[in-house]
Amino acid sequence: MSMLPKYLKPLPPHLGFDEHAYLCAKGALTIPNEDVVDQIIHSYVQWHHPIMPVIDVESLQKSVVSDGTTGGKISILLLQAILYAGSAHVDLIWLRKAGYADRREARKAFYNKTRVSVIEILSFSSTANQSFSFCTKWIPNLTASHISKLCS
Fold first, then answer.
1. CA distance 89 to 12
2. Residue 97's closest CA among 42, 40, 45, 32?
3. Do 135 and 114 contact (CB within 8 A), yes or no?
4. Mind listing the pLDDT tens digit for each residue in 20-36?
């Protein structure tokens, strides 16, 4: 596993080896490269944050740009949720650079990483509430045919 960026909070000390291994196995501790993360965060800020302003975007951006030296550090759970939300509108080229074949695959992966990351937060803090709010729009099996049936 590669090192996590310095702008992320360390995992809580109460996590044991098994929980850490589980998070690794499920990909919850894997994030795309810096350029991809920057583009997805930009997409989040442009498209999602105006609808659901639940985080301090300025602190988020300062933290990522400064690698955690200003703006504070963020939780891996919150980052995965932001990547999930931002992946809805980021240019597909960035999702492909992250190794995803299409937007649906990327959204499903980020959603699952967010869901699995809940192990990190055992008490429902504001970070957990912020993270969960981004995941309220995922409907895994919704297709165009489902939408047309619902609308007819």
1. 32
2. 32
3. yes
4. 888 899 999 999 999 99
Question: Which pLDDT tens digit goes with each residue over 89-140?
Answer: 999 999 999 999 999 999 999 999 988 887 665 544 556 556 656 665 555 5
Cα 96 to Cα 49: distance, rounded to the nearest angstrom: 23
Domain contains 99: yes
Q: CB–CB of 28/116 below 8 Å?
A: yes
Q: Is 114 exposed, middle or buried (0-12, 13-18, 19+ CB in 10 A)?
A: buried
Provide the number of structural domains found in the chain. 1
Assigned domain for 71 exists: yes
